[in-house]
Amino acid sequence: MYIERLELKDYRNYDSIQLDFSSKINVFIGENAQGKTNLMESLYVLSMAKSHRTANDKELIRWDADYGKIKGDVQKRYGRLPLELILSKKGKKAKVNHLEQTKLSYYIGQLNVVMFAPEDLYLVKGSPQVRRRFLDMEIGQISPVYLHDLLHFQKVLKQRNHILKQHQGKSLLNDVMFDVYTEQYIDAAVKVIQKRFQFMELLQKWAEPIHFGISRGLEKLTVSYHTTSGIKADWSDIEMKDYLEKRLFESKKRELDRGITLTGPHRDDLQFFVNNYDVQTYGSQGQQRTTALSLKLAEIELIKQEVGEAPVLLLDDVLSELDDYRQSHLLNTIQGDVQTFVTTTSVDGLAHETIQQAQMFHVEQGAVVIKQ
């Protein structure tokens, strides 16, 4: 799949703009704070209906406007698909092929993207919250059911936490609704955990050989999903539910002391090992960056396998963060197969033929000019 055309109306620092793209490589060149990342962000929002930079949609609307709009024409294997998002201070509307969608989960997944930005280099050594977000966003792209299950889990978790907060500090909690929410919580949590295990198995399948290649055959990468509950991937549905129920019973006193739910998917994490050593703790900066790059390239292959066509790749100011070898490996991998968008302040140091053959766009103060 690839994005043929992008139209922005009152988005960030753009009042009105329309761009036609190459199906191969597109490069946005310009100094910092001119609007390159805003363009990249708009492509991400067009896909995911949310920004990777802010949770506040109001920030996406130009400061003196009532609403913002992102429209894109996406070419897929079965034909052209128009997508549209209207962002207002009251919420957002999503349209697929000019038809408004009643739920955002019906919209997400129409356009698949893989974003690689400097902050993704901290996927390995950052907080567990960063890795959980990575999991949820990527699984959500290929499984609308997962998005529905995750939202249900978050809703039940909030309700359960509300009762715990009301009874915080007490030694006993006899509340029928709490028992009901706990039962719903267990069912919802197990669905999320199972889907995450399945996704990690697929990600491991692709990431291991990619990492082996980037490390010149010297390193074996292992990626695993670590549950706070102690649930294992090969357990049955019933075994997972029974074990989680047991763990919640054991932690009930501590939950009352803290006023929050202490065990479940909202506290789980990913672990990365290179040659059986924990990369987060013992890995060099180079190993951590190679691991992050391997994960992103594995995402491309995973989505291609699950969806049947390659996603769009967004490289936001990340090439300058990679050394020449990793840079070349990345560009060689995507060459000719994956529509790619790159932001950079200059192409002078990028000698790779893929970049030299790209469609160039010069960005300055919210204006975009095609470079010949």
Give a written overview of the molecule.
The structure is a single chain. The chain is α/β, with parallel strands linked by helices and 372 residues long. Helices cover 42% and strands 24% of the residues. The chain has a 6-stranded antiparallel sheet with strand order 2-1-4-5-6-7, with helices on one face. Strands 8-12-13-3-14-15 form a 6-stranded mixed sheet, with helices on both faces. It contains 11 helices and 15 strands. A hairpin with a 2-residue loop joins strand 4 (67-76) and strand 5. Helix 3 crosses helix 4 (144-166) and helix 5 (176-214) crosses helix 9 (285-307). The model has no long low-confidence stretch (mean pLDDT 91). The chain has helices spanning 36-48, 104-107, 128-142, 144-166, 176-214, 237-250, 252-258, 279-282, 285-307, 324-334, 353-356; strands at residues 2-11, 14-20, 25-29, 67-76, 79-88, 91-96, 99-100, 113-116, 221-226, 269-274, 277-278, 312-316, 340-344, 359-364, 367-371.
Secondary structure topology:
Layout: E1 2-11, E2 14-20, E3 25-29, H1 36-48, E4 67-76, E5 79-88, E6 91-96, E7 99-100, H2 104-107, E8 113-116, H3 128-142, H4 144-166, H5 176-214, E9 221-226, H6 237-250, H7 252-258, E10 269-274, E11 277-278, H8 279-282, H9 285-307, E12 312-316, H10 324-334, E13 340-344, H11 353-356, E14 359-364, E15 367-371
Parallel strand pairs: 3-13, 3-14, 8-12, 12-13
Antiparallel strand pairs: 1-2, 1-4, 4-5, 5-6, 6-7, 9-10, 10-11, 14-15
Helix pairs in contact: 3-4, 4-5, 5-6, 5-9
